[in-house]
UniProtKB/TrEMBL annotation:
It comes from Actinocrispum wychmicini. One of its GO terms (cellular component) is membrane. Pfam families: MauE. InterPro entries: Methylamine_util_MauE, Thioredoxin-like_sf. GO terms for biological process: methylamine metabolic process. It is a multi-pass membrane protein. Signal peptide: none annotated. It is found in: Membrane. The keyword Membrane applies. The chain crosses the membrane at residues 6-28, 40-65, 71-91, 111-131, 137-155. Its main location: membrane. Keywords: Membrane, Transmembrane, Transmembrane helix. Residues 6-126 form the Methylamine utilisation protein MauE domain. This is Methylamine utilisation protein MauE domain-containing protein.
Length: 309
């Protein structure tokens, strides 16, 4: 009984934190899974991951109820799946954060997932073999709540205690892969007209892009610019819609480029984030960038140099 009284709240805390993390920010998990299972990218949708997150939350809560033996089976299955994902990450060389606890997860799929999966599978098995009095449930719930809070503080510690950036790349640099002096023959209707505008090329699979759009929304830097459009490279439409909602981009004009087909075939762009400056109906500049404020100053300078018709 004592073993389960200690382990069940911990397992519940892990499942609750993982579930809420993926429910709020499923894109990190999607990115990690698509990296190791590229052929299943069409199946690994935001909707699917959110459904999994809901099951995690329900299972975590259910472990602290009188019906815990029923949920123990679900938790055991989750544990085996987590361990299998970790093993797949090791075998296939996962390199991106696993997203197990949402956008704040830092480690790729690997040994940590195997260890957590094995632990959850063990807790599930013990609940099927052993039992503990229902009178202890009242004490277990605060333990699980406290554990969830501590896990939240731990996984978000890098946001609470910010450190200096380790990105040594210049805040803006020319992007040579775009041919200047022309415009592509195919121009999506959802983007601003191709006379004078700025296109921000983003990706739902790009960690830097998330920081860029957060800068953009926070500073409202678009107010001093011409029309701003966003080309969002994405695996599927659900991921792009999630990206727009998560980062508050609904007020801008954007185009969902599934599979980055338009970017690669019409513009030759295979990176993000990239800014394209359009003036006088042609591309006048293209940049890779990491700082919105620096980019804005350069865009204004470029557009001032464009001859007026």
């Amino acid at each position: 009984m004592g073993v389960l009284f200690a382990l069940d709240p911990i397992a519940a805390a892990i499942l609750l934190h993982a579930g809420f993390g993926k429910l709020i920010a499923p894109l990190a998990t999607q990115k990690a899974l698509v990296e190791i299972f590229p052929r299943a990218r069409g199946l690994i949708t935001v909707t699917l991951l959110r459904c999994v997150a809901v099951v995690e939350i329900v299972a975590g809560c259910g472990l602290l109820t009188a019906a815990r033996t029923v949920f123990a089976t679900v938790i055991g299955v989750f544990g085996l799946c987590f361990a299998a994902m970790g093993a797949a990450g090791l075998i296939r060389g996962s390199s991106v954060p696993c997203g197990c606890f949402g956008a704040s997860s830092r480690r790729p799929l690997g040994w940590t997932n195997i260890a957590l999966g094995a632990a959850l599978a063990t807790v599930g098995s013990l609940n099927l073999l052993l039992s503990w009095p229902e009178t202890d449930l009242a004490a277990a719930i605060p333990l699980a709540a406290g554990g969830t809070a501590l896990l939240g503080l731990w996984t978000h510690r890098h946001r609470i205690f910010r450190r200096g950036s380790t990105d040594r790349r210049a805040p803006i640099e020319p992007y040579p892969d775009v041919t200047l002096g022309q415009i592509p023959p195919v121009w999506p209707d959802s983007l601003p007209n191709s006379d004078n505008c700025v296109l921000l090329v983003l990706s739902t699979m790009c960690d830097t892009c998330a920081g860029i759009v957060d800068q953009f929304a926070k500073r409202q830097a678009h107010e001093d610019w011409p029309a701003v459009g966003m080309v969002i490279a994405t695996i599927d439409r659900d991921s792009a819609e999630e990206f727009v909602v998560e980062h508050g981009l609904a007020q801008f004009r954007y185009y969902f480029d599934e599979g980055a087909e338009w970017l690669s075939t019409q513009l030759g762009i295979r990176h993000s984030p990239v800014a394209l400056v359009v003036g006088g109906g042609r591309f006048v500049a293209a940049y890779r960038f990491s700082d919105i404020k620096v980019l804005r100053a350069q865009v204004i300078k470029d557009l001032r140099s464009v001859p007026r018709a």
